[in-house]
Amino acid sequence: MLSLVLATLLGTPVAPARTITAFDTLRVEVGSRLVNGRVYQPHAARVRVRIGASDSPLTAEWTNELTLGDSAGRPVMRWVTRGTRFPAPGDTIRWEIFQTYDAETLAPYGYASQSSTGASSRLVLSGRRVQGVRRLPGDSTVHPVDLVLDRAGFIASASDLVPLAVGLKIGRVIVAPVWGPALANSELRAFSILERIPVDVEGTRVEAWKVEERRYADRTLVATWYLTAASPYMVYGEVVLPDGRVQRMTEVAIPSRP
To answer: Is the pLDDT of residue 13 over 70?
Structure first.
């Protein structure tokens, strides 16, 4: 789940446009039967983030842990993410994110976060409706959140979950809406499955599916993901930052917490 917290770590990437054709294009909405979240099994993983060369100093590190359960008779997946950012030498920012999705459709039900900066949020999602509270960094005031989106969206910071849940096939394009706390409304993204290639993940060669994620409206590249069918599922990612630098993320499986 490598794209967790990308909304807070990334600016707007810029990349050349690529044509998205109707051939083998699947249009997926939240709740669609085309989505099979059951492909994701309980696991834990560690993500390391660097900017520039693959041996550059770490700028962030976090762990993801997935457990499965039940809520009001529906199977759910619960993701817990705990991480640290290193904005400057000797400085750290710690944060946690708790997310609940439908285990079959990936429909988001709950999103909660807290940071050592004082920022926090607690949101409940039901279709197009988003309700809860939010506090900005350094702010002592808790602000209410009550939104009705134009369409329900998958969580943007976990968008890399969508392609594998729909199915990976070279040449396939998956168009799906995403939403996150940083967005005023849902935004269409296009996931293009390009090829299956070897990629180096912290010194280990891994065969992975290469998937580009672009904004559907203007074809701007958001990220390039490298996916596998087993834990940790998302093994490597690259994001082009506004200044042209490349943010690189690696993810490896770790033991689950007892």
So the answer is: no
Section 230-245 average pLDDT = 90
CB atoms within 10 A of CB 17: 10
CA distance 126 to 105: 13
Is residue 119 within 8 A of residue 113, CB to CB? The reply is yes
As to burial, measured by CB atoms within 10 angstroms (0-12 exposed, 13-18 middle, 19+ buried), residue 59 is middle
Q: How far apart are CA 213 and CA 113, in angstroms?
A: 25
Q: Are the C-beta atoms of residues 177 and 215 closer than 8 Å to each other?
A: no
Overall average pLDDT of the 229-248 stretch: 90
Is 60 exceeded by the pLDDT of residue 6?
A: no
Distance separating alpha carbons of residues 171 and 210, to the nearest angstrom:
11
Round to whole Å and give the CA distance between 62 and 49.
9
SS (H, E, C) the chain: CCCCCHHHHCCCCCCCCCCCCCCCEEECCCCCCCCCHHHCCCEEEEEEEEECCCCCCEEEEEEEEEEEEEECCEEEEEEEEEEEECCCCCCCEEEEEEEEEECCCCCEEEEEEEECCCCEEEEEEECCEEEEEEECCCCCCCEEEEEECCCCCEEHHHCCHHHHHHCCCCCCEEEEEEECCCCCCCEEEEEEEEEEEEEEECCEEEEEEEEEEEECCCCCEEEEEEECCCCCCEEEEEEECCCCCEEEEEEEEECCCC
The residue among 66, 122, 113, 74 whose CA lies nearest residue 94 is 113
pLDDT at 243: 84
pLDDT of res. 90: 76
The mean predicted confidence, pLDDT, of the chain is: 90
